[in-house]
Amino acid sequence: MSNKKLEDLDCPWCGRGASLDITGCRFVLCPMSGRYIDIILDAVKQVDTRKIWHTTDKLSTIYRGKRIHVTDAVKACFVNAYQQDVHMVMEATFSKGCPGDTDADSFLSEDNVLMNQARIADKHFPVLCKFAFYPMGMDDYIRHIAHIANLAIERGVYLESSHYATVLQGDVHDIFDYFDEVMKYAEQNISHYILEATLSVNSPTK
Amino acid sequence: MSNKKLEDLDCPWCGRGASLDITGCRFVLCPMSGRYIDIILDAVKQVDTRKIWHTTDKLSTIYRGKRIHVTDAVKACFVNAYQQDVHMVMEATFSKGCPGDTDADSFLSEDNVLMNQARIADKHFPVLCKFAFYPMGMDDYIRHIAHIANLAIERGVYLESSHYATVLQGDVHDIFDYFDEVMKYAEQNISHYILEATLSVNSPTK
């Protein structure tokens, strides 16, 4: 623990910003089972991370790289962790463009060939998802949020608007495809965004 | 599922806004144990919710009301769910001021007497927390974020800055006191904010 002021620290608010095209995701897997350690470690281990930068700490796993490879890897980790008999939640923060981001801790692959998609393409299961999108530093952020909610309706993954979130429902691939579409839109229209999602599978609540 | 456009729906982006002083929190408890259903239901049931509006759906529990009563209730639910031998994660979105919020679904108690604090005050355990704060609709949002990170340093709960989050560490009461302090600052300085936190206890990772 430190009692220094933030200006003295190597912090993400010091206004450097990344010059590279880095999308990132920090996520936590929560399988509600006594076997959670094996489920998490196996899932993380099975992800092909050759086209992204990655690290796992006590709180979460972080992937950084090209948008499509980050989405591919996070989806793969979630699909790998899925067990038919286990209620599981994943909390994921996708982000790009933080003024305090750096070029460090990243790997940008030149090509667009997804490393995990082929191996998980045939695995399907329904996901319920609490979703929020935050465009930073803009007066008219609500316009972008409305556009992104409409995208969910168009893609058939919109269930309802609720307090502090949009609720999405759909096959795991459709949910992650939507995330990728949202981030593609954001890259073109918003300098700094956060996509915050909490995904749930096999909830015992009817 | 709906194929209507969002303008046709009763949605949170329709620009009404609440006229009442409503802070809210939507949170998910994830005890990584085969006993998760009992742990969650017992924890939720034990919270004294007489001074807030509350509902629990398939995805999460929502509390809405006066800031101090919402913080008190969320902390109580987390403390109630804590088990010495169970790794648990709570994902919580606190928010106030969304232009699409409504006065509905709220209860604003007149007094400031906390309903849960006395019963949980003696329960202490260390928490590791991924924390992010999003001031919406402002050019200079980074200034507020830096102020809030400095508050964490001053209060001794700041561990480090990391990709897409500040990492907090401290006793459960210090962590929630910090959240409340952040939201108090936000009420005075920011029209719409989101405080996003993922709290972790008893992680087996060293």
Query: What characteristic shape of chain A results from the CA principal axes?
Result: globular
On the 0 to 100 scale, the average pLDDT of chain A is 92
- Please state the second-level CATH architecture of chain A: 2-Layer Sandwich
Q: Largest chain interface and its two residue counts? A: A-B, 75 and 75 residues
What percent strand of chain A? 25-35%
Total beta strand runs of chain A: 8
**Which bin fits the share of residues in helices of chain A?**
25-40%
Q: What is the spatial order of strands in the main beta sheet of chain A?
A: 2-3-1-4-8-5-7-6
Class computed from helices, strands and strand pairing of chain A? alpha+beta
Major sheet details of chain A: 8 strands, antiparallel
Unreliable residue runs of chain A: 8-15
How many domains, in number, for the residues of chain A?
A: 1
Q: Which series of helices and strands of chain A comes N to C?
A: EHEEHEHEHEEHE
Rg of chain A, Å, rounded: 17 Å
Oligomer: homodimer
- End-to-end C-alpha gap of chain A: 43 Å
Protein name (chains A, B): Thiamine-binding protein
InterPro entries (chains A, B): MTH1187/YkoF-like (IPR029756), Thiamin/HMP-bd_put_YkoF (IPR011522)
Pfam families (chains A, B): Ykof (PF07615)
Domain Thiamin/hydroxymethyl pyrimidine-binding YkoF putative (chains A, B): 22-101, 128-205
Q: Characteristics of this structure?
A:
8-stranded antiparallel beta sheet; alpha+beta; homodimer; Thiamine-binding protein (chains A, B); globular; Thiamin/HMP-bd_put_YkoF (chains A, B); MTH1187/YkoF-like (chains A, B); Alpha-Beta Plaits; 206 residues
